[in-house]
């Protein structure tokens, strides 16, 4: 295993991490047990919160995060400080909320789980500082219901923080009040969309909302609301403690994204795992030096850079740099930063059929392209998988990729669902053509041909 490895879920060995270079993971224990309050404070925990509440004005915290270049770590990559700045400055709007999006249901993504299970106080501290910046008096961690251990650990951390005067009334004598609650979801992927999350938190059906108005103006229970991802919020304490200039030195030269990122690789690689790494790292380094390359007897066929909703890339794309713009140059998105290696034994039609079944099932059904288009793609992929497809099926699939693309559906669920489908046909079209029945009529260009 590479000496560069920082941390890994699973049997991989763990080695020392540096506070100066690994702000998210340096406090992790070698035995993977949770870091509770006493140990967290011994490792400089809540020092940033004391600084933010005792020495910094609310606007200064917002400006610091904005200047740091921190972007959302949930997949969209929107600048965090800019998002915070959208909250109204009107002091009469004194009821506002901070929501943590911990509904980590993207297939092949488990980074937030590690933070919540092993470093629950890091998230609590990040939310406390962020709430002070946003003047939010109440926060909710909207947690994936299957994360039972994370729920238990977060609730214990919240109780520890309350007992220590780090949550509740007049925190650290600052006059600032903040309550924090864990809310477990009922298991719907669509709740990862921030407005669907808000609807679910309110007890409504988890459908996305029309925007504008944006949550910063009209969010949970009609009040100004900010929604941030777990990993995003966990970056805040280190930025406040160590400053903007330090944070900008963490990324590799050439990266337009600042700081570090939890990245991983799964599939039939020798060392599947999760590591905190600098933005701008070549994907090949992640694949070869950290994940160890493919297991003996397997060959890399293609890979996804960041969850099931990102497009497939070929082995030659491993030279791309792991930041949003670097992955964008080779035709897809970085997403969550947790990559999947697809080996040469996998049939792409079967793989895509499995993926699209998931996305079709998880559609909220609110808009027609997503509600009808995704099941349609599943029906066609099943036929191709059985060798019963028609000549026009592939054109129909490409038409669906176009009609369900960005800007053509109510939210980003369908565009993310069809991105891997379009890339798979682009790079592995013969595998799809092999599913066309021998007695199928020749294809004709019709209304579902790609535009």
From TrEMBL:
Necessary cofactors: FMN; [4Fe-4S] cluster
EC class name: translocase
NADH-ubiquinone oxidoreductase 51kDa subunit iron-sulphur binding domain residues: 349-394
Record keywords: 4Fe-4S, Flavoprotein, FMN, Iron, Iron-sulfur, Metal-binding, NAD, Oxidoreductase, Quinone, Translocase
Residues spanning the membrane: none
InterPro entries, per database record: NADH-UbQ_OxRdtase_51kDa_CS, NADH-UbQ_OxRdtase_suF, Nuo51_FMN-bd, Nuo51_FMN-bd_sf, Nuop51_4Fe4S-bd, Nuop51_4Fe4S-bd_sf
Database matches in PROSITE patterns: COMPLEX1_51K_1, COMPLEX1_51K_2
GO molecular function per UniProt: 4 iron, 4 sulfur cluster binding; FMN binding; metal ion binding; NAD binding; NADH dehydrogenase (ubiquinone) activity; oxidoreductase activity; quinone binding
Record-listed E.C. numbers: 7.1.1.-
Reactions catalysed according to its record: a quinone + NADH + 5 H(+)(in) = a quinol + NAD(+) + 4 H(+)(out)
Function in brief: NDH-1 shuttles electrons from NADH, via FMN and iron-sulfur (Fe-S) centers, to quinones in the respiratory chain.
Subunit and partners: Composed of 13 different subunits. Subunits NuoCD, E, F, and G constitute the peripheral sector of the complex.
NCBIfam families, alphabetized: nuoF_fam, PRK11278.1, PRK13596.1
Protein family: Belongs to the complex I 51 kDa subunit family.
Name of the molecule in the record: NADH-quinone oxidoreductase subunit F
Organism: Aquipseudomonas guryensis
High-level lineage: Bacteria, Pseudomonadati, Pseudomonadota, Gammaproteobacteria, Pseudomonadales
Originating gene: nuoF
């Amino acid at each position: 295993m590479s000496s560069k490895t920082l941390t890994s879920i699973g049997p991989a060995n763990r080695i020392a991490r540096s506070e100066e270079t690994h702000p998210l993971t340096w406090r992790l224990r070698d035995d993977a047990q949770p870091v509770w309050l006493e140990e967290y404070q011994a490792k400089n925990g809540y020092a940033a919160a004391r600084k933010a509440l005792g020495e910094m004005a609310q606007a200064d915290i917002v400006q610091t995060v904005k200047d740091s270049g921190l972007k959302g770590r949930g997949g969209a990559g929107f600048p965090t400080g800019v998002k915070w700045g959208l909250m109204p400055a009107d002091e009469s709007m004194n009821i506002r909320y901070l929501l943590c999006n911990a509904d980590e249901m993207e297939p092949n993504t488990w980074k937030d789980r590690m933070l919540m299970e092993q470093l629950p106080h890091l998230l609590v501290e990040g939310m406390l500082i962020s709430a002070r910046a946003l003047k939010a008096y109440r926060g909710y961690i909207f947690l994936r219901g299957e994360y039972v251990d994370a729920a238990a650990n977060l609730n214990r951390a919240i109780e520890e923080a309350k007992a220590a005067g780090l949550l509740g009334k007049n925190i650290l004598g600052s006059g600032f009040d903040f309550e924090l609650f864990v809310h477990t979801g009922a298991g719907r992927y669509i709740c990862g969309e921030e407005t669907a999350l808000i609807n679910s938190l309110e007890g409504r059906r988890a459908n996305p909302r029309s925007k504008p108005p944006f949550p910063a103006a009209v969010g949970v229970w009609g009040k100004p609301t900010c929604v941030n991802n777990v990993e995003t919020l966990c970056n805040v304490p280190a930025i406040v403690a160590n400053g903007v200039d330090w944070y900008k030195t963490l990324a590799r030269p050439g990266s337009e994204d600042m700081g570090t990122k939890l990245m991983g690789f799964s599939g039939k690689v020798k060392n599947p795992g999760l590591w905190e790494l600098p933005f701008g790292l070549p994907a090949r380094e992640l694949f070869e030096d950290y994940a160890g390359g493919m297991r003996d007897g397997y060959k890399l066929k293609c890979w996804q850079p960041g969850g099931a909703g990102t497009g497939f890339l070929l082995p030659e794309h491993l030279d791309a740099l792991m930041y949003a713009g670097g992955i964008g140059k080779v035709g897809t998105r970085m997403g969550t930063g947790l990559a999947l290696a697809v080996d040469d034994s996998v049939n792409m039609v079967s793989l895509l059929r499995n993926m699209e079944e998931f996305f079709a099932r998880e559609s909220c059904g609110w808009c027609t392209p997503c509600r009808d288009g995704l099941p349609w793609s599943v029906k066609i992929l099943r036929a191709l998988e059985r060798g019963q497809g028609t000549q026009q099926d592939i054109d129909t699939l490409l038409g669906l990729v176009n009609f369900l693309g960005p800007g053509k559906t109510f939210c980003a669920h369908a565009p993310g669902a069809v991105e891997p489908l379009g890339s798979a046909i682009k790079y592995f079209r013969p595998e799809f053509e092999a599913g066309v029945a021998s007695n199928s009529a020749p294809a004709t260009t019709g209304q579902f041909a790609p535009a």
